[in-house]
Amino acid sequence: MCGIIGAASSRNVGKLLVQGLHKMEYRGYDSAGIALHQKDNIFNLRTLGKVSLLEDEMIEQRPKSKLGIAHTRWATHGKPSKKNAHPHASGEVNIVHNGIIENYLELKEKLIQAGYTFESETDSEVIAHLLHQHLQSKGDLLAAMHEAIKELDGAFAIAAIHIKDKNRLVVARNKSPLLIGVGLEENFAASDPLALSQLTNEFVFLEDGDIAEITKESYQVFDRKNSPISREVTEIDIAVNAVTKGEYSHFMEKEIYEQPNAVANTIDGKLGDNDVLDNIFGLGSSEVFSKIKRIQFVACGTSLHAGKVGRFWFEQIAQIPCYVDFASEYRYRDPLVEEGTLFVTISQSGETADTLAALRYAQEKDYLSTLSICNVPTSSLARESEHVLFTNAGPEIGVASTKAFTTQLAGLMLLAMSIAKSLNKDQQNRKKLVHELRNLPKVIEETLKLSNEIMNIVPNIADKHNALFLGRGMFFPIVQEGALKLKEISYIHAEAYPAGELKHGPLALVDDQIPVVALSPENTLTEKLVSNLEEVKARGGTLYVFGGENAKIKIERGEYIQMPECSELLAPIIYTIPLQILAYQVACQRGTDLDQPRNLAKSVTVE
Ligand code: AGP
User: Fold this and answer.
1) What does the pLDDT read at residue 26?
2) pLDDT of residue 539
3) Is residue 42 classed as helix, strand or coil in its secondary structure?
4) Is 302 in the pocket of ligand 1 (CB under 6 A)?
């Protein structure tokens, strides 16, 4: 998955394209490239590494052009290298691509037989040669694109330019996000509106099978059948300060500290005096909820962890059974759909390929309805689900998800309460929860103040190779999330276990070299958890425990950090915070590139 951008303008576009790539580095950052139409050639520049390296080269070379395309890459086929970077060229055509061409080997074979030579190991290069091949018979880039995409299986967002078209950019979309940005005397295409946030606030979201031609004066979209079609223009204002680090050293740090506000925005306008309001998941949602018998959650990574916490809440508050599946696995196990099951996807980006594919698969099954909890209102997931709750966390740029997670949890709690309300269950608890939710931003703020205390334990973890994370009940998914945070940004191997499982194998790992991080809130499982932690102590383990006011364990090796008092049901949200801070500080100490950790990308738009 990658970010693509294109521009047709009456001004020089090189700088605009590079600025756009910077904003899409969350989609991949292992190499970058640009192709600019010039008088009688196409200037093509590719660099290995982040967009800033491409920018340095651009500053040195200062190419001028009013039409161009650019790309930031996350390698799928072929290692990160200059020759695998986009744009790919074939004769007089240059293309950028986001997605995966599943039948590329077959196409590559045919193209080689037709005399084409391949310079890269990518699947994307077939698109350039296919376009070139069809240009020979069609003589026009738009017509060639129509023909070329008929041969492509898989996901793609493509932008292409041709030497004979000094004013026109041609784009095509199937299962990978792509939109047109409508400007004044200039028009754009990009994978994400964020890339164009300083250029326009008017966007046209393309649909699967769409092709479009874009010039500086106008644009025209064509559907699968090649008929001109009009697609709605959507206005979106993206706050510019939401995409800068401000006073913080990293986006991740900024996003951790934004959580009190972000959670307040998620619940804003959703709560009455004593209960959750009706239809907060869209018109008619309360009516649908009254028919629910089961819930199926599907998500990836951090968002999956949110679903796992949600499961406890739904079974407790709404008293309905829940299933939680990895989006990447769900549709391959032929799931049996029970009557009255609500299908719920959870996603920050709303563009995660596995989650989106699961939703599309579910739409073919007998689910009661589909619902998504999502942070990006313009995303495919939000547009394709019948009901949606936007988490309103604001853009999350750091690859490691932080505020997206806690706002997803707040959204899930609202969902559990809404369903309980529609099913007439647990009114007293809901009343209490309304007040606890309102107080939640304040408690998060309090928890953020633990930063200095957490700093004290950082040196004892930053020099280790492994870590164990323990929790029980709804805190098990929270320690899974904590372990994920630590490994993805500090590259320390971290494993999470439900504490009761320790004695069934992982206890063998415990020695004085493996820090054991545990969450010990005050609840019905505290005594049990403490017994599990005693097992660690007895083997000489070092414990770092975050727990309630009355520490039930005496720690000789390690540290006990006292958490602020908080609601028992909302405690998973609060206990997430110190684990985020811990991972962040450990990664800072180890000096990793923590906003853009190695091998990863923010939005995973490939399967
Ligand atoms: C975790 O920090 C990650 N960024 C990752 O696990 C992420 O949650 C996952 O890729 C799903 O993304 P989504 O929420 O945008 O669907």
Assistant:
1) 77
2) 87
3) strand
4) yes
